Amino acid sequence: MQRFGGRLGSVPPVVLNLLIINILVYFGSSLAEGTGFDMTRYFALYYPGSEFFRPHQFITHMFMHGGLTHLFFNMFALWMFGKVLESVWGAKRFLFYYFVTGLGAALLHTLVIWFQAGNLANDAQALINTPSPDVFAMFIKENFPKLQSEVAPFISSWIDAPSNPAYINEATNFVDRLVSMKMNVPTVGASGAVFGVLLAFGMLFPNTRLMLLFPPIPIKAKWFVIGYGAIELFAGVMNQPGDNVAHFAHLGGMIFGFVLIKYWNKTQRNKFY
To answer: Is 237 helix (H, G, I), strand (E, B) or coil?
Structure first.
């Protein structure tokens, strides 16, 4: 079990500034919302096919958060693990690593959304090509299962008059709105970079024991990181309805962090200045 000594006593400058910026942005966005200015619209990350997408969002979304709990856990993990890494790597290398993993997380998340958007568009086009109650019901079941009970009465009425143009128009318009809503869901948070930080801690200090909260048992950092990554992969693949967590962004931060650390180890660049 490694001992960090004085490394845990103070907060190094990059971690400290990241904490301050994230906290200020969160409360600033809350104040701005009260005046009618929605910072999420401009600084959260949108899918590139969205009308709200701007390239700078790949960076700015890392400083936006969806709530106080979201902010707290990200900043707690950054403080807990980031200060150790910065004390080992130095400020410049840590800052570089933080942004690389954050951008990597955003890229993988965007790639997954692009794949999902393609499937969604194909399903919507199938309804437009062959409008019927069965195709509409299948579209809802596969893409928006939580809406099945809500649209059930409409589908029952449509079955009684399958050629009625009013039902066809209502169904296609409803699907268009759902697709637009899905494509305009913003992504916020430093979680991708934080997962990269967690991965780095597990690689640099694999046998350090961490105390879990639930259940309250010790676990080595390497097993904690592997287990957390496996949970994120499982949750991302399952893609349960109502799950609004960007699991593949978390995995992206870990993947890019792993590749970068392996590259540094291979080239034996002990300093990054």
So the answer is: helix
